[in-house]
Design a protein that fits this description.
Blueprint lengths: L4 H8 L6 H14 L8 H19 L4 E11 L5 H13 L4 H11 L3 H6 L1 E6 L2 E10 L2 H20 L2 H4 L1 E7 L12 H21 L2 H42 L4
Antiparallel strand pairs: 1-3, 1-4, 2-3
């Protein structure tokens, strides 16, 4: 059967491709290139804080703390209030160079290093001094606290005849079973909270946020102002046309 010209023209045409896949592909590409939400710094900072806190808790060596207690006892001729005052004074000199020099042989550390690993605290209501030693080992922390407590008692009791107050060891420090430094989960939680707080503050202080809120108001005010300004020349032209028409009228 011979093909007609119309049938030949139809057969010569190449089949057109469905534009739908191209549209779907373009929609997918556009979906992939969508900008990040405005609040993205908040979860990003929180995740970074969690990772930093967890890494700090895992990589940092544990630190132990042990505490020994000494008490200021007045003599028979001394008032209790005097012992309370001397307890405050002895707490201040517990970390002095003279006291740490007595404790250095037993603690096995230098005076400069020993000063960074010991602290003394007291209460204004009781004549008791708490001496806390810190170290990477539990036994080392107890040795530091006991060495400084013994040195403080020895040096203060040399002047007990003049002061009327002597220091007695109330309780020796023992090696702790658990470290005093925060664990990895605790440090991770602290880092998470800190990162979330930083992200929230960054969102509040972001300058682009204020510009975005001002753009709609400017867009709304623009057409109104432009219409008002363009209406003024039109009114002036109408007034000029009316005045010129009155001048052209013949006088009767």
């Amino acid at each position: 059967m011979a093909e007609t010209p119309d049938h030949k023209k139809k057969s010569d045409r190449t089949p057109e491709k469905d534009p739908a896949p191209r549209g779907r592909r373009g929609h997918r590409v556009a979906g992939r290139l969508r900008p990040l939400p405005v609040w993205w710094p908040l979860p990003a900072c929180a995740v970074l804080g969690l990772a930093a806190g967890g890494a700090y808790g895992v990589l940092k060596a544990p630190e132990y703390a042990a505490t020994s207690y000494v008490v200021a006892v007045p003599n028979d001729t001394t008032e209790p209030a005097t012992a309370l005052g001397f307890a405050q004074a002895y707490a201040r000199i517990a970390t002095s160079s003279s006291t740490l020099a007595y404790a250095q042989p037993r603690a096995g550390l230098g005076v400069a290093q020993l000063r960074t690993q010991v602290r003394a605290e007291t209460s204004p209501e009781s004549p008791m001094i708490a001496i806390t030693g810190t170290s990477r080992t539990a036994a080392g922390a107890a040795d530091i606290a006991n060495a400084v407590a013994d040195a403080l008692s020895l040096s203060s009791n040399q002047a007990a005849k003049n002061t009327g107050v002597q220091l007695l060891l109330f309780n020796q420090a023992v090696a702790p079973s658990d470290p005093a430094s925060p664990s990895a989960p605790l440090s991770g939680a602290v880092g998470l909270c800190a990162g979330g707080l930083i992200g929230g503050l960054w969102l509040l202080a972001k300058p682009g946020r204020r510009r975005r809120t001002d753009e709609p108001a400017a867009a709304v005010a623009g057409p109104a102002e432009s219409g008002y300004v363009t209406s003024l020349p039109a009114q002036g032209e109408a007034a000029d046309a009316t005045a010129s028409a009155k001048e052209k009228e013949p006088v009767r």
